């Protein structure tokens, strides 16, 4: 199962909040309660999907993400719960 | 039974009642799929707004007239991402589609509206809808966008894949609508889907949607270039907030200046027609009631129709164009400081038109505590019913001179200040609520950014018509009733066969009874009567004061201004403005809050809190010399 029942801050993997504008990553796991995880999946955040970081509100929070053909804005603390694998072919990701 | 055919009366057997009600069809789709545009296209002016009982969800029903003259009732369900009933929107949609709703009949067919430019993701909703085995037409909307951005698909292959008819249309341009009418007037076959995924498993549903899309040779369109270009301006770190501020200021400035000639026109019409009525009737109590009570009362409110409609026009343009979602994004940090979120911004912005739709609009906030907090602070926002009061007092006490060149006048600045005051009171209250009784942990926040689109005249026009009807109905009922009641109270008791002077009338007695309470605020008994009638609806105070100052409708506004200048000190005027900024003088809002929060607890708390704040605020203002 790709989701867990609680917020997992122990997971050492990188997350969406670390992505800068134009950065790309593959979603691995949503560390949020099931209801919220389902809602995000219905919006396109299904594990295995490629996500591109887009523009943001002033100060970088919330940020718009391009996912599965649409654009969805997430707050930094929510984005931090979306664990990702950075796209290897993308040099912009540190 | 067959022997009885044609002899019901004789046999005493009743045949099943043949319903004359038209067939009902439900319109279902995710948010931003263009569902409302299609609804407007199908039903035009034959639609009405209603509420599902017990829940917050507003729903529209309308009648579509088929080419053969037949009628179909269309139920526009709220925008949903899935059919698993978690939010109230989804619960309503689920109940209607499964025939468990008391408000709407079980639909005989479903029109499922999906955005063809985002087909794979939107197709996920097709799985639970098709699983209902109701006749379904899959409508792929925004075909014009899909084509112009180089995307495409094979509708027939998709239809074979889903076991249901598919129509590729553009609701905005009206292309392909005949396919929808063909479905509605045809036999409406039951959907026969094959190989539906496990509905609870979102990744499996997404996989299925992708597979179906591939088999229909779906080519996703290129990214929307104009949306990206516009976003790089509207979400620019510096330009974005500047444009946001300019948009807000421009809206308020236009409401104040552009409405003026239209308002003068309406005022002129009422004075001319009032005079005409006055001349046509013999002098009597009835004439006085008609001209001063009915005509004056209605006229003093209808004058503000242009301002109300302009505000709704701007809100409509901002929403339909897609800018409102960007504004919510920019506002999110500010809202977060008050303990709220960007999604509270949209209800709070609509509260500037009216708190009632704003309270209904809070349904998009999934967090219950955030939702109640937003409901509780929404009436602080400067609603259109306050505008007439503000306009009157500002025009009476603030000279019309430029403040920031031609861009911002002193009066518009004062108005803007009052909007700001309401906003500050709201955010401060939200902070208090969210750090005490309504404290909640942070929850996932998301906001979909739709592509920018040109708003259509059709949907803007229908929206304005809708609002004009609601406003006029209010003017025609609550406010008119208050005006007539007041007129009666101002003309009783009859003394020696003559009507009393205003201060000896019933209304005058009431006003002088409460005078000790409002005297510290700088208000006399005449304004006191206005405050009492404004408990029904804020704008009623104008008709009341107009009647009390004994002016005829002809010179009502000018006369009222002069009378107010005589009766109020500048400090008293500021106190009056502050009182109206804070107090919850609106029966409709109290009623809707009671319904939405499921009891009297919150509306009573809210009314008391806002009333106390209004009194204290006005008391302070009355003691500051201006």
Give me the CATH architecture of chain A, please.
Roll
Class inferred from helices and paired strands of chain A: alpha+beta
- The beta-strand count of chain A equals 5
The first-level CATH class name of chain A:
Mainly Beta
Number of helices of chain B: 27
Low-confidence stretches of chain A: 1-8
Description:
The complex is a heterodimer of chains A (94) and B (626). By secondary structure, chain A is α+β, with helices and mostly antiparallel strands. In chain A, 14% of the residues lie in helices and 31% in strands. Chain A has a single domain (16-86), classed as Ferrous iron transport protein A (FeoA) (SH3 type barrels, Roll). Chain A is globular. By secondary structure, chain B is α/β, with parallel strands linked by helices. In chain B, 57% of the residues lie in helices and 8% in strands. Chain B has 27 helices and ten strands. In chain B, strands 2-3-4-1-5-6-7 form a seven-stranded mixed beta sheet, with helices on both faces. A two-stranded antiparallel ribbon of chain B has the order 8-9. Chain B is elongated. Chain B starts with 7 loop residues before the first helix and ends with a helix. The relative contact order of chain B is 0.08. The model of chain B is unreliable at 1-20, 51-56 and 551-556 (pLDDT under 50). Chain A binds chain B through residues 2, 32, 35-36, 38-44, 46-48, 54-59, 61-62, 64, 66, 68-75, 77-78, 81, and chain B through 81-82, 84, 86, 117-118, 120-121, 124, 202-203, 206, 220, 223, 231-232, 235, 237-238, 240-241, 329-330, 332-333, 336, 341-342, 366, 442-449. Strand 4 of chain A pairs antiparallel with strand 10 (446-449) of chain B.
